[in-house]
Structures are given as structure tokens and as C-alpha cells.
Amino acid sequence: MEMRAKQDIEIGDDITPPLLPLSFSLHDSFLSSHCSSCFSPLSFPPLPHHYGSLYCSAPCSSSHSPISSSSAESFLPLTCPRSSDLRTALRLLLSLPSTCPHLHRFTNGLLTNYLKLTSSPEFAAQIRQGAIAMAAARKLRKGLSLDQSDDVLLEEAVLCLVVTNAVEVQDESGRSLGIAVYDPSFSWINHSCSPNACYRFIVSPPNATSFGEDSGSALLIVPSVSEENFGVCSCSEYNKGTEGYKYGPKIMVRSIKRIKKGEEVCVSYTDLLQPKAMRQSYLWFNHQFTCSCSRCTVFPSTFVDHALEEILASNPSFSSAGLDLNLYRDEANKKLSHYVDETITEFLLVGDPESCCKKLESVLEGGFHVEQLESEDGKSRLNCKFHPFNHIALNSYMTLASAYRIRSSDFLAFQSKTDESQLKAFEMSRISAGYSLLLAGATHDLFCSESSLIVSAVNFWKQAGESLLTIAGSSVWNLLGLPKSELSTVVKYKCSECSLMDIFGAKSILNQAERTNFENISSDFLACVRSASPKFWRFLIHGCHYLETFKDPFDFRWLAHAHCVAEDVDFIKEDSNCEHHAEWYTNARTHIYKVGMHCLVYGVILAHICYGQNSHLTTHVLNHVENFVH
């Protein structure tokens, strides 16, 4: 089963109108804080230990509560695992016809994967236990009890359908609020690790203005199915969803590449910044299939997949021994990965940002030593470090940017507001911005080779831009003899090297002609920020030994030498005679502001392609830029 384009589709076009779900449910942790109908946050404080449905308005209640009460979900055990799956399946059961001739294959036009999941070691027990709990709840609602001989085939099939087709519904911050099952207009869209489309959710209360919603969008894809392989399935039946849902988390699909008429439309089910082995493992464990897309099957691996796993090894005498270096790289990779994963997990659970920074920077900078066995030349040691594009390095940059930002905030909160403490907090904010910019630059390099990474690039450029503008607007510059008014001459400016600020000034963000010319816009943007970065980069990262090994956050051509060597940094140190360096600081601050603006506006352009001009993310970034300007 698949969906294909019924016409040529340009980059940044809506492929579907907003689609309401067939069935959906909040995760347990959000039942007390979010509306069970539209998934919007409730206006009253969360109710502790509440597991029923709550609503934000009378329309949501009247739309959803009859289905919720009829589904028997209130009779599910409170300790039932993956209860959002069971609630979604119970609600979906209400829409089924009295007879289902292809229960093992299709229900409501959706593939159930019944035979595969009920014979899978990962899912069989979960499906069986969940189906028994659902059947027992339905019996209890009728005042009956479940007998061991009762058939739970229907419950098993519908739960398999949910496991196969449900998608995690995320809010604007990326939190997973719950799950939803959509009709084949979305559910028949297959996965690819190099997709040509992405999707977004529209979560809003009734009568609210929904970001990015255009009810006039047409469905630009048509279903394609092989009856020989899947049996009879009438695609005209796939819109028979749960009648009565007027509200709920809507989904829209949008193109991120040009798609030709008849070409299959694909989205991603997993994190595309993971290497092939991790993507395949995730897809098999969660979806029970092995990806055979072009990115996964090409040999040798693509540049992106090679870089995401690359370990830099140094020691000429070690490599000259004629042994297989890949064996040692694999050993180092496992140990480095384990250490970094433990550190990040500890940071998320314990919340010690200073310890996290020390541990991550220690392994990023020092790497891991592998000692070779005795040879004729004696023992030798191989030093292994993460390639800056390695997926673990990218994850570390993201974590370090967050940890330094938290350290800066905590330092100001718990220290007296002296000049010294403000400068120390400012140093941590600088380094946080440095990691955000390095993460954006590294991801952009990968994005240039694999354009489907655009969704990740959106968030990283947004974070880098916001971090840089926060630095540029900091009051700490006053301590360096530079009041904020010094930015007045550059707050509204035209860039002579690229067209980004002209696009932003036009308010249209990205018209059709500019989308067609997106590659040139992207190339001009990179050239522009690359020319500006040497004028502030060393100031931004001063004091962070690892970041100081990078001469430029956007230029990685030195990686061809396969080693990372810190160079002497001729830096003007912050001291009590800052007034002598006012001109230098002014220049650095001006370029921090300019690059920050460029990063944000470029993020707006990418967000427009992924989510549309009126999407929440696009609007958020635009407001951030305009608030800073005004």
C-alpha cells in the first residue's frame, strides 16, 4: 500500500488538507492537564491522580464524551500498560461494521498486520494481554465477566491496527501528548529514510485560529494498492471513521522536495540523524519492517550515513601495523557511545549541568585510547574521537548548549548580582550559543547532502539564532563599555551579500519563485554567515577548549585531514581595561547580531517549507525577530 502524487508537486506545498483522526487518546501523563478532545492545555491546574477525560469547553465535551463513555475505557485497569493504545483501539471499535471479512488484513481500509504482530516476539504478548483487557472492559460495561473461552480476535485485530498505524501527536515544543490513527490519506503514506514529505499537527481548541490550517487545501495524493498481495480492499471505504469527532488533533502533510506526478510520497517514521543500524533497529522494534529505501540500500553508504558513524583515529605507528582499524574503531565507538549516553541520561534525571559539561567535553576533546597488543615495535595506542558529524557528537552539542544555558541561568539565580557573577554567567551563555551554532553548521553540512534533514535543520537554526540574539542583546555589554544602543545602527539593515533580509522584509517569506530558487538562497546564506563568523567566533567560544579546536562553525573542509588540532588563539581577553577594546567588542557584537538575524530568518524560510507560512513555528520565529527589531 502506498500513496502517489496525482500531479507535479513543488517544494513547500500542502499535500493534504487538515485531516481529523479516526481515533485518538492522550497519554496517561497528560490526562489531567490537557483536553481529551482537542489536546489543548486546560485552563485550570492539573488534577492529581486523575485518569478520566477532561475537556476545555462544552463543544469538546459534547463531541468526545459520548464516544469515551460508550467505549468502555473507564473499565480498563488503572495499571494497564500502554493504556493510550487500548483507549484508542476501544474507541475505534465503535466505528467498525458488524462484519469484517478481511479482519486479518484490513479494518476501515487500514492494514492491521495481525499475523505479523501476533507472531512477533516483541509484540505477541503485549497484543494478547491488551486484547484481553479490552474484551474484559467491554464485558464489564455490560455487567458481564470475561470467560477464558471467549474469543478476543476482534480486539486483537483492532489493537494491531493501532500499533501499526498510530502516530505520536506532538505539540509545538515537540512533546508527545498522545497518539492518533488517521485514515489512509495519511496512514497509507510509507516510510523512507530519505522522504520527500513531512507532517505537522494542528492542536487547537474549538473556534480558535489554528496556525497553519488551510481547510481549502486539496488532496494531492491517491492510493495505490496491489490486490494480488493484500486481497480485496475498497479504497472508497477508508473515510468511514468514527462518526461524531468534530474536534481532535489534525494532521497535514507537506512536501519538502519536488515530487513528480506518479512518484510515491513518503514521510519518515524515525530520527533521520541516526545512522542506518539505529534506524533499522528502531523501525523493526516499533513497526516490524526492514527499510529498503534508497538511502538504506545504497552501497557504499551515503556521505551522511558514513559521517554519522565516523570515528577519527590518530596514531600513524598504530595504523602502520597492518591491522584492521575498523575493529578498534568499533570498540572505541561502543565505549564512547555508552559513556556519552550514560552522561546525558544522568543529566536528564539528576539535573547536574556542570558535571554534564565536564564529562561530555572531556570525551569530545580527549577521546578514547585503545591499546594495541604487543607487536615487534612494542605496544602502541590508538586515540579515537568522534567526528564532528557523528550522531553522538551532534547529540552532545545539543545537550551542552542546553546544559550551559541552564548553568548560566542558575548562576544568576543563586549568586549576588555582582559584575563578576554577570560576566561569569555571560561566559556560559556565550559557550551555549557556540555549541548551538556548531550544531546548526554541522547539520547544515549534512543537509546539503541529504535535503530530507530539513526538519532537523529548522530547529537547530532557530535555536542558534535565538541564542546569538540573546547574547547580542545582553546587558552585560554595558560592563564592557557597550550599551545596547550601540546596535541601533544595525537593527534594521540590508545585507549586501545575500537576499535573506530582503525576503524577510517583504513579509511573504518565500513565494513560489523563491522556493524554486531555494538552493541558491541557501548557498548565498551560508557564504554570508561564513564570511562573518571569523569576526566573532573566537570571542564567542573563548574559554571552551573543545570549541576552540574549530576555526569556523560553518567550514569543515579541514576534516579531510581526519584529525582535530587546536590552534593558538590570539584573543583579546576580558579584563579591567575593556575600554581599550571597545571597538573590537563593538565589531564582534555587531556580527553576532547580524549572524543571529540571518540564522533566524533562514530558520523561518526552512520552517515555511516544512510547515507553511502561518504555522506555529514560523510565526514564533517571525515574532522573535520582530520583537528584537522593535
UniProtKB/TrEMBL annotation:
It holds the Pfam family SET. It comes from the Eukaryota. Residues 113-270 form the SET domain. CDD domains: SET_SMYD (cd20071). PANTHER family: PROTEIN SET DOMAIN GROUP 41. This is SET domain-containing protein. The lineage of its organism: Eukaryota, Viridiplantae, Streptophyta, Embryophyta, Tracheophyta.
